Amino acid sequence: MIQRTVRTLFLSPWLVLVSCRAEPPKVADASGRNSESPIETRLSQYTTVSLTTDLTRLSPRERQMLPLLISAARSMDEIFWRQADILGLYMVTKLHQRGELKAPLADNYVTFLASIFRSIRFGASNAHGRANAAQFSFFEERGAFSRDSAAGRYRVDFPRMKEAVDALAGRILRFQGDGDYVGVTRFMEERGKLSPVLQQDLARLGSKGIPVDVVFEQGEQILK
Known about the structure:
Blueprint: E1 2-3, E2 8-9, E3 20-21, E4 27-28, E5 34-35, H1 38-43, H2 60-97, H3 105-120, H4 127-141, E6 145-148, E7 153-156, H5 158-178, H6 181-191, H7 196-207, E8 215-216, H8 220-223
Parallel strand pairs: 1-7
Antiparallel strand pairs: 1-2, 3-8, 4-5, 6-7
């Protein structure tokens, strides 16, 4: 779905790691029957609990502030993921310009756009997923990539991609530096959603059986 001049990256069934599986492996017990994997066994030792607190010592005004603080914390979580991703790409660009990285910079831009598709698939309710949906929307608006509607493939426009990376990095840093809670909230409300076209492309990935994430087969039972 994402292509450049010579090399093309297709989000297709072939985008699968041979050494990975989409589900945790089952371990055979002495009777030959499948039992829980070591990871499932460990997880079963934990339980879900509800954390409570005593709010009686807070004033009415302080209790009114709690929902606002929770909302602000959620926005901070989302902006952290946007900062971590886009500033990482921004720094890669700077290192390349200084000659510290020899690999083609275009490869990083193509990989970054491809990674957005994977992260969004974790769900729009997930902070990382919403942050990547916002990045995708920002890049689309800035013309950082184009989509071939007939083939359903994406092509990165490298000069515009660099401009979009610089612009988004600057926007996020200003949000944080100014403590602009209103600006962050508005930005996420406008951009943290999936367009119908993007939803359609993500659905194609799901229909091909490509897992959202992978689970590596590891442990003593794999070595035997």
